[in-house]
Amino acid sequence: MRLSLALALVSMFVSAPVLGAEDDEGDGKKKKGEEKKKKGEKKGEEKGGGASMDSGTDPVFSEKSEDGPFAPKSKVVVDKKTGKVEPAAKARPRDPFVVYLEPLIGFGQAIAVASASAQESLAPEGTVITIEAGGRYDLSPKLSLGLRLAWSTANIDQPNGESLSAAAFAAPELTLEYRHAFSPLTTLPIWFGVGIPVAQGNPDPTELDTAVQKQAAVNNLADAAHGLRDGELYQPKRLPLVLGVGLFHDRNGLDLHAYTKGVFGVNIGPDIQDPNFFAPVGTIKANGLSIRNVTLVGASYEFLAKPALFAGLDAWFSYRAIDPIEFESAIGATQDTFQFVVEPRVGARFGKLGVAAGFLIPVGGPLGEAGINGVRLHANYAL
Predict the structure, then answer these.
(1) pLDDT of residue 122
(2) How many angstroms separate the CA atoms of 24 and 55, rounded?
(3) Is 0.85 topped by the overall pTM?
């Protein structure tokens, strides 16, 4: 009995370590299998990229930054409805430095100072040639400086049938423009301009100096030939100030543009020498501040890529709220202060060189009644 109990105890002590080792070995194998499985899953995830990344639901991959005006454009776009691959919309790259030359030939009659029929002969009539030159430079993607210069010469017809010739400089204009980008295709420019008040001539019809009278007539005729769009350049004895805002959209060769600007002319000249010069029909005075608004809308389309040919149409309203010289009629005569002008244009681009031609057509208003038109040529070059 005692011998049997002793043998049983000995066998228990011997078998316990063996069973423990087998259990440990089994647990170890199990753990190693699980570790291998996990490693395999991790390797599979690293190799396959993960389901969330493939589906694009990860916020890091689905979030997109806002594209600026100089962001690279994708070459194609897939239509979600049809599945067709189409070229992505893009705008023509902006040139950071551009110079231009713009001759204009105008023929017809400008606006008279007085509206009474007896004074219509004071409106200069004839042919004017204006040469405008300038350029702009981008200080940054959003900020630009600009400069405009103009000079005009004209043959002015006289009531007695004679013709006189004269030439005059316009007021140079400096501009500062800021552009806000709504998208890579749409921008909002805001600009401020100030002119150097050296436009030649004296708009006072009672001026005795015939030389400065003729120069004022040349600038008046040039202003009319431009459809009253650039009055800041052609108002003698005025300090021109300009404030404008626009909207420009360029998409796959289609250019849509619009702007409105206020032109303010501060009088820096003397008063009218003889306010009663037109008596008893009326009197004249020089206003301390002249105000004009110009609102333009237009579009152009590049209908041929190589060579790059385009056609367009601009149309604008010009509202003369306060003229530099105001005629106060004693008989109640008034003058139309609104003017509508259209300008169809055609042009082409040859690398960095662009050329265009337009024909200015006044529709009604004082310019339409005067019968003045203008042919505008344009050339610009990107440096």
Answers:
(1) 66
(2) 44
(3) no
